[in-house]
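Record type: monomer structure entry
Structure origin: computed from sequence
Chain ID: A
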Amino acid sequence: MDRRLPDFDHPSAFLAALRMQFESVEPGRVVAWMELGPDQHTPWGVVHGGAYTTAIESAASVGASAAVLDRGQFAVGVNNITDFLRPHVSGRVKVVAEPIHQGSTQQLWQVIISRADDGKVLARGQVRLQNVPLDDKGGLSATPQSTR
């Protein structure tokens, strides 16, 4: 089985809208950058909180997956708590994710999003993730069956 992280140069359309670029991905730290602006705005002209929530979950998931990849696993978010601290209209932001706990079945990561120009924190989040097995194609090994 090929145990590599996905190619971040060709994200889904959903993630591409964030324009998130990963500077470094390690089992204990992820650093990424985003250029935010009108494409991520609410009708009131500020960056939508969903952009921050998505970036927080993405950074935590990538780091947590890097931590368990050698065990034939990847990590999926099961809880995401995001605090929005100040509005932002446009500009480059830094995303830094670090683990609080890395266990055999679950992980807990903290993520900080700050403005690149002055370092002020825009949002912070905490993501709890479940470590799940990879299949031979690098995805989820067992698809849960619907009970309905």
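Annotation 1: The chain has one domain: 15-133.
Annotation 2: Strands lie at 20-26, 29-36, 73-84, 91-102, 106-115, 121-133.
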